Amino acid sequence: MDRPVIRKDLAELAVRPNLEDYDEGCADFDWTEARRALAGLPGGGVNIAHEAVDRHADGPLADHEALRFVRADGSVRALTYAQLSREAGRFASVLRGLGIRRGERVYSLLGRRPELYAAVLGTLKHGAVFCPLFSAFGPEPVRQRMEIGSGRVLVTTRALYRKKVAPIRDALPELRHVLLVDGSGATDAAAEPGTLDLVTLLAEASDYGPTAATGPEDMALLHFTSGTTGRPKGAVHVHDAVTAHYATGRFALDLHPEDVYWCTADPGWVTGTSYGIIAPLVHGVTAIVDEEEMDADRWYRILAEQRVTVWYTAPTALRMLMKAGTERIAGYDLSALRFVASVGEPLNPEVVMWGQEAFGLPVHDNWWQTETGGIMISNYPAMDIRPGSMGRPLPGIEAGVLARDDAGAPVVRDGEAVLCEPDATGELALRPGWPSMFRGYLHEEERYRKCFAGGWYLTGDLARRDADGYFWFVGRGDDVIKSSGHLIGPFEVESCLLEHEAVAEAAVIGIPDEVAGEVVKAFVELKPGHEASDALRLELIGFTRKRLGPAVAPRLLDFAPALPKTRSGKILRRLLKARELGLPEGDTSTLEAGR
Ligand code: AMP
Predict the structure, then answer these.
(1) In the chain, is it the N or the C terminus that has fewer CB atoms within a 10 Å radius of its CB?
(2) SS (H, E, C) 319-355
């Protein structure tokens, strides 16, 4: 099949790429060798915080800028590796002072603020486990995730605490300490009952001393993700993940020591941790942190003024920039930019090409998910791009497309899953064993076990692999919704709707959206005695927004006299979606009569 290709010429690249020859790079790679690029703890073992900051703070990078924060007014505040290491040490000391033990969970509910970075690294240094929450979550998603992970400490702001945590605090008996980053003194924080003022605690804290002697398999990070049914899943990641953060930062993001790197991901999600914090710091580069939300002019100003060289962003953001108009870029000097990468949702070929027009650089799509902990499939600076393709597996990663049976399960023969022929659609799968692979879903052994079959980890995504080894995303294998890069479990939204007195049944699907990829749409069957009306529609949307937060709540809501269900009572979201989009309804043999 003839597809457009963006040819790469080594001689035209501004910097010699880390991965010059893809096939050679893959053949030469092994994880043991990759680990040698890291320092390891002086007494043995590995700790992410040591690799990310402490070893640099003790070496030639001590005075190099680690993080550069861009405030609302455009002014900047930088932290060197030595300063960041000290602040992380103080945070670790605060945890020790509070009696937090190794392995206990420290949560954050914060935007991109300097305190977040010290908290992540300090938590890891102390050997505790860090778990970020998305600040646009409402009280209910916060409560569920804190409860599942038995959160002991929460770091947040006064406003977020009042709005999202105070209403559910009584339901979290295991939460011992809430640390407010914007308390301006002990008395002030005392005014917010049940919280402590982090500013005061940090000011009183001593330096920490040696990093906790964690081993490669010790739990370091807990990242929540959503499935089609059930509660959110807490993916467990270990300290050895840093090996993959390093290797992928090197090959997929092409990080070089002199880079100024900007990852625009929200710190509440896995990308914000793996590539907003760990990978750039492990590479000793300067990472830009924008404290504000997205705005086209602001972003171009940051790219220009901060002389960003490597930019890692997302399709929704790129589509918004594209929509704002290429002419907006005129007047900004983006000459420092040499590599643009994107992740999180399908990247349309038009956006890849728009990059060429707007920045003189194509956008490099890459693929991964919460469970994989790091980039698995990617386009590289020195490899031709096939716009619309996610690229090829990272060195050290074996990816495959598995044939599926009629029920959608992988076909397994003699214990080994059967691979699809080139260009055929199947389930995207990875050979287990890479360092950042999740080690479990917290407290859900069975759910974890089900992710593996015939020697592979099953990603839940559908994909194709062409004859040259490029992977193409086809869609999700389940009903999970991706909106503005955020994974939303329909069940979570349906459960919330069912709490409303007027709702008998609810079904939630994703509807294609030009900018956000998908938006959440709910269908509601009302209880007798309740009438469908615009007022009730608004009330239901408001009800879910209040509990779930704007990032998760449905944007659209329709009333339906009867939702399509199987005879066993399962709502057929797929059928609703097909009807909504005017697509073929497929197999409806299990449909309950009259639906
Ligand atoms: P999350 O675990 O929230 O990071 O979401 C992971 C999911 O996002 C994947 O399983 C895919 O469904 C989707 N995704 C991530 N990257 C891409 C990409 N480059 N192209 C298409 N879908 C993607």
Answers:
(1) N
(2) HHHHHHCHHHHCCCCCCCCCEEEEECCCCCHHHHHHH
Tell me how far the alpha carbon of residue 95 lies from the centroid of ligand 1, in angstroms. Answer: 34
| 3-state class percentages of the chain: helix first, strand second, coil last, to nearest 5 | 30, 25, 45
Please report how many Cα atoms fall inside a 13 Å half-sphere around the Cα of residue 283, on the Cβ side. 29
Which residue has its alpha carbon closest to ligand 1 atom 10?
A: 369
Ligand 1 pocket: which of 369, 386, 480 to mutate (most atoms within 8 A of CB): 369
Output phi, psi for 369, to 5 deg.
Answer: -150, 170
pLDDT digits (tens, 9 = 90+) for 441-484: 999 999 999 999 999 999 999 999 999 999 999 988 888 999 99
The CA 594 to ligand 1 mean position distance, Å, reads 36
563, 525 contact by CB (below 8 A): yes
Residue nearest to atom 20 of ligand 1 (CA): 346
Residue 486 pLDDT > 80: yes
Distance 588 CA to ligand 1 centre (A): 29
List, as one string, the DSSP characters of 547-575.
Answer: HH-TTTS-SEEEE-SS--BBTTS-B-HHH
* Nearest residue by C-alpha to atom 7 in ligand 1: 369
pLDDT tens per residue across span 253-278: 999 999 999 999 999 999 999 999 99
Give the separation between CA 374 and CA 368, rounded to whole angstroms: 6
Structural tokens at position 388: 């619309």
Question: In this predicted structure, what is the pLDDT of residue 188?
Answer: 54
Q: Which of 81-90, 129-138, 175-184 has the lowest mean pLDDT?
A: 175-184
Q: What is the DSSP letter of 275?
A: I
Residue closest via CA to ligand 1's atom 4 equals 369
Among 473, 483, 518, 552, the mutation site with the greatest number of ligand 1 atoms within 8 A of its Cβ is: 473
Least Cα distance to 410 among 459, 444, 377, 370 occurs for 459
Distance 368 CA to ligand 1 centre (A): 6
Distance CA 131, CA 155 (A): 10
Could you give all domains of the chain from N- to C-terminal order, each with its CATH number?
Answer: 10-358 (3.40.50.12780), 481-581 (3.30.300.30)
The full DSSP string for 58-111 is TSTTTTSEEEEEE-TTS-EEEEEHHHHHHHHHHHHHHHHHTTPPTT-EEEEE--
pLDDT in tens, 335-382: 999 999 999 999 999 999 999 999 999 999 999 999 999 999 999 999
Distance of alpha carbon 410 from its chain centroid, rounded? 26
* CA–centroid distance, residue 276 to ligand 1 (Å): 17
pLDDT tens-place string over residues 158-203: 999 999 999 999 999 999 999 999 976 555 555 788 999 999 999 9
Distance (angstroms) between ligand 1 centre and the Cα of 116 equals 25
Instruction: Measure 373 CA to ligand 1 centroid, in angstroms.
Output: 12
**Which of 340, 482, 486, 488, when mutated, tests ligand 1's pocket best, judged by the most ligand atoms within 8 Å of its CB?**
482
DSSP H or E segment with residue 488: strand 486-488
Which of 487, 492, 518 has the most ligand 1 atoms within 8 A of CB, as the residue to mutate? 487
